[in-house]
Design goal:
Strand content: 25-35%
Distance between the termini: 46 Å
Number of strands: 8
Order of helices and strands: EHEEEEHEEEH
Shape: globular
Structural class: alpha+beta
Number of helices: 3
Oligomer: single chain
Radius of gyration: 18 Å
Largest sheet: 8 strands, mixed
Length: 175
């Protein structure tokens, strides 16, 4: 007996076969279960490459801080500014969704292994609390948890300013 089952009904990837058709670009808003963060010294050039070359589209941008690209559902890329070419060198960053109650537990568990491997959790402009961890392989792992919605918060105001409606799932136009 196996614990595995066919889950293609929740995957954007079609079943393999000679007649497989790529899904449409996915423009919905969801809690991202996993995504990559890529530092770049030239965000416009990176956006151009990822969109025209790799088939992604710009879901939204927070000027000077972040450009969120997507292709299919669950294929999310965050482009962030790198302060220097050295910071933009190939350094892997992977992010995993979690819940707020897990952030401190993850931080404590990592600190028990290596106190220098993490810093204090931080709140982001896109309404999450993140904990960053540097693994022994020099991989930056970010656990990110959505914070409760507060219609009066600075984060909500900032999201509205870049065209993202945040009340009750009304996310407006993003492209």
């Amino acid at each position: 007996m196996s614990d595995f089952y066919n889950a293609f009904d929740i995957s954007p990837v079609p079943a393999p076969g000679p007649d497989a058709v790529a899904p449409e670009l996915y423009r919905g808003i969801y809690g991202m279960p996993m995504f990559v963060t890529i530092p770049t010294t030239d965000i416009p050039a990176s956006v151009d490459f990822w969109t025209r070359g790799l088939g992604f589209f710009e879901l939204f941008a927070i000027p000077g801080q972040l450009v969120h690209l997507r292709r299919w559902a669950f294929q999310d890329v965050l482009l962030v500014p790198a302060g220097s070419a050295e910071q933009a060198l190939p350094a892997m960053t992977v992010s995993f969704a979690c819940v707020l109650a897990q952030i401190e537990n993850i931080a404590d568990a990592v600190r028990a292994l290596d106190a220098a491997a993490t810093k204090a959790p931080r709140d982001t402009a896109w309404n999450t609390r993140d904990i960053e961890v540097l693994t022994p392989e020099n991989v930056r792992v970010v656990f990110t948890a959505a914070k409760p919605f507060d219609p009066t918060s600075e984060g909500t105001v900032a999201l509205r300013a870049v065209g993202i409606g945040v009340e009750g799932g009304d996310n407006g136009e993003h492209v």
